[in-house]
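Supplementary notes (optional reading)

For those who missed the lab, this is the record we used. Protein: Methyl-accepting chemotaxis protein. Length: 457 residues.
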Amino acid sequence: MQSYSSYSEPSSTNDDPTVSAESREIIATSSIIDALIEGDYSIQADTSTALGQKLQRLIEKLGENARNDLNRVVDLSINNNEASIAAAQLLYDLKNVAAFSQRIASAAEEMRASVGEVKQYSESIDQGTTNSFNAVEKVLGTLGKAVETFDEIKASVAENSAKLTGLTHFTKQVRDISDQIKGIAFQSNILSMNASVEAARAGDQGRGFGVIAQEIHLLSGRSEDATAQITKLINNYESEVAGIMKSLGQSQAMVEEGQSSINLADSEMNTMVDQFKAVSENTSQISLALSEQSQASEEVAKGINTIAMHSDKSVASTDNIVESIESIQSHINQEILAVSELNIRGKIVKLAQSDHVIWKKRLVNMIAGKEGLSSHELADHHSCRLGLWYDKVNTPELRSHPAFAQLEEPHRLVHAHGKRSVDLYNAGNIGMALQEIQKVEQASRHVLALLRKLEHV
């Protein structure tokens, strides 16, 4: 009977003629069972016997089951960690949304307060505009009365001027009459002088006539004095009237100028009233709009506060989801640990896929605030499970495969960008850290694609 490739009986047993073939087969079978118990599915049974064929089929079946278990648990780990990554990214985004919502809520509250303050100012301006409009209307009414008064003054001055003009004509007539009286007195004086001469010639007969002539002379003299006095009075009167006429002319000019100014002021005041009306209407509309804006701002503030409250609840719920996924992953990790103890073909290639997704998840957890990392505690691409395996592979089929040769560079980039993202995050540069994690994601997809190609080599 041929020996088994992995667990054959000792050579002394094979060479011992006292040991029967059945005993050797039992010993070999026991060795195979021990190997299977230890999880070694790489052994080969001697298929030259019916029992050996059965054992080989058992080895292959158990190995296939183990590989299926490995595939399932690794795929489950990958999917669970991808879900964890998505949940952690969602948690990070929701935390940002919650923070932004809180800031927006504060800003909305400040805006609401500012709108209320502006509304108060607008109402004060509106009230002030209304008061100013009322005051201007009162001034406009006073100006209207002033215009009427100036019209009356102008008419009165014109009437007085006309009357004085009539008096000027009357004084001219009086002067003419005075001149006539003066002429008559002069003629009477001449006649009295002639009568006195004739009376003197007549002697005693003309004495009575002389007395009369003398009286006529006295009366004519008194008439001359009276006409002279009248002329003086007329001159003084005409001088006064001329002064009054001059004053009336100046007054009329001033009244006309004042009337023009009052009319201009009245026109400008009417324009001002129209402008105040427009301003009052605008301020009223602004006040109304601000009232509506104040209500809208209050509703916006309430809405944003509601959003912020729901965002906080979403953060808490997502955090619970992340914790639940982590709890599931802890059970999966136990399964992976159990499977990793088995000797299964392609085990490292398969487990490395889970390792890389877990690596990405730790980086995302860091960004989401679920895990603290330091670049010094992270392995490089030579010290991780895949790196240790990669550097020791000597199987020609693997080393000659194109995917194997292509694997080193993207694997190096996964670790390099991961370490860089941790350093950036710890330095407070979250934006650059996220960019590095994106590069990790790109390189990791390449690594996973190459590992899947190596699974069946």
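If you only remember one thing from this example: The two ends are 32 Å apart (CA to CA).
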